[in-house]
Amino acid sequence: MFFAKDKVAPTRADHYLILVAPVLPLERDIRFSECILKCNSATIGYLFKESFYNFLLRRKNLMNAINEYLKRYELPDVEFNSARLEIGNLSTIESTLLRSLIKVKRIGSRKVYYDGFISRNLNRRISLRISRYLAYTEVTPNQLTILSFSIAILGATLFLLGNYMYTLIGGLLVQISSILDGCCQTKVYGD
Q1: Are residues 134 and 64 in contact, defined by beta-carbon separation less than 8 angstroms?
Q2: Taking the model in full, what pTM does it have?
Q3: Eight-state DSSP code of residue 63
Q4: Contact assessment for residue 103 and residue 47, using Cβ atoms and an 8 Å cutoff
């Protein structure tokens, strides 16, 4: 769905997420059905099913459509993890966004990581720090990919030479390549 001031150009979808407050959603996967999204008891948005599409087509104003839809259908309130976009908490939001790039999910109260031990405890920590710096530069994800690939090829070439010192340096270069690849992923998902 496309919004420009009061004009709405709806397209058909399974669900519609409409945010009415300047917030950054911190939920990775929304696993609930139609509802009113709340953050600290304040309404920040709505999640509607496909039926909202036909309803919206008959209305001229988005907020009128939302209000009439809510009168017709009783939707539950769901507390939604989000951060208000304000000048005072931009550094907190930046840190939260960077942390959200760590591949983790919760199973009950326990964290389950998708990354391996080295990736989680070494590569990701370094790549997030580098990415924080690169976010303010003109470096593109494609440039990072080319650099990372070139370093990996150089490392692989050193492995082929068979000398202990070359193998050690080659391993270090492959590790650096992996860290730069993490920066590339962060740059792509962060942009």
Answers
A1: no
A2: 0.54
A3: H
A4: no
